[in-house]
């Protein structure tokens, strides 16, 4: 079984618990206005790797990721569900913790269910907590992400929910409360994390000859992020 991978990161520190070996899957059906990885969009980009080749790479860094594990990110890893399922099954069989970093945009079909059978943690980026913003700035459906999250709950897969805060688009307290309400609706949510909008990716857009739609939007400051994180946490806790 082969899958298309955009790149690897030997020791990622932000893609799950502990240090992680991260594979960025190639291909994504969304077009998030703030996307940091536009090089992953084309389904036919990247390079092909077999499950065995990736397992071998993970084995090479095993001593460094003992307390961490393997994360399949993207792009959108669920665009290649059979590959993701087989890869996770092989890694789990060898004792690696597996994390899936996804937007959940493929909903809750049988192939997604098969991936989740071998997944130790789901990190779901709920792009926007309002359907209109999700559609406008990512081109996807919030309802499909919520269907996916419901499936993670049904299958009792631990879940981290994330969201990027973009000034002037989703940085109002009401946006944070809406996300907190979503997090409060599912019993398997272990963590709710807001991330700041950054523009470190602009050189990638220039290199690809694509306009960065949010170039005029300021980055999200640390104080604002902290304030919204507290609002979201309070809503989640019901206080
Ligand atoms: S889901 Fe991720 S990879 Fe796909 S467009 Fe959005 S930010 Fe980029």
Describe, in plain words, how this protein is organized in 3D.
It is a single chain. 36% of the residues lie in helices and 21% in strands. With 239 residues, the protein is an alpha/beta fold. The protein has a single domain (2-237), classed as Aldolase class I (TIM Barrel, Alpha-Beta Barrel), CATH 3.20.20. It starts with a strand and ends with a helix. Bound molecules: iron/sulfur cluster.
Summarize the structure.
The chain is 36% helix and 21% strand.
Main traits of this protein?
8-stranded mixed beta sheet, TIM Barrel, alpha/beta, binds iron/sulfur cluster, 239 residues
Topology of this structure?
Blueprint: E1 2-12, E2 20-25, E3 47-50, H1 51-60, E4 69-73, H2 81-93, E5 98-102, H3 110-116, E6 121-125, H4 131-138, H5 142-154, E7 159-165, H6 173-184, E8 189-196, H7 202-208, H8 222-237
Parallel strand pairs: 2-4, 4-5, 5-6, 6-7, 7-8
Antiparallel strand pairs: 1-2, 1-3
The structure holds iron/sulfur cluster.
Iron/sulfur cluster is lined by residues 28, 30-32, 35, 37, 40, 74-76, 103, 138.
């Amino acid at each position: 079984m082969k899958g298309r991978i955009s790149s690897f990161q030997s020791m990622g520190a932000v893609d799950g618990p502990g240090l992680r070996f991260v594979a960025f899957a190639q291909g994504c059906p969304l077009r998030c206005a703030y996307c940091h990885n536009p090089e992953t969009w084309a389904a036919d980009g990247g390079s092909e790797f077999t499950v065995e080749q990736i397992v071998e790479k993970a084995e090479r860094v095993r001593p460094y990721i003992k307390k961490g594990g393997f994360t399949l990110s993207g792009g959108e890893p669920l665009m290649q569900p059979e590959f993701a399922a087989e890869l996770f099954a092989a890694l789990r069989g060898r004792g690696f913790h597996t994390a899936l970093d996804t937007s959940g945009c493929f909903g809750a079909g049988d192939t997604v269910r098969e991936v989740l059978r071998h997944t130790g943690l789901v990190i779901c980026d709920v792009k926007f907590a309002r359907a209109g913003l999700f559609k406008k700035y990512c081109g996807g459906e919030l309802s499909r992400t919520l269907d996916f999250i419901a499936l993670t709950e049904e299958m009792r897969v631990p879940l981290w929910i994330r969201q990027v805060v973009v000034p002037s688009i989703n940085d109002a307290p009401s946006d944070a409360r809406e996300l907190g309400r979503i997090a409060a609706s599912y019993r398997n949510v272990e963590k709710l994390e807001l991330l700041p909008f950054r523009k470190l990716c602009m050189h990638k857009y220039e290199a690809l000859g694509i306009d960065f739609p949010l170039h005029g939007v300021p980055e999200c400051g640390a104080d604002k992020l902290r304030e919204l994180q507290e609002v979201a946490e309070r809503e989640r806790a019901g206080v």
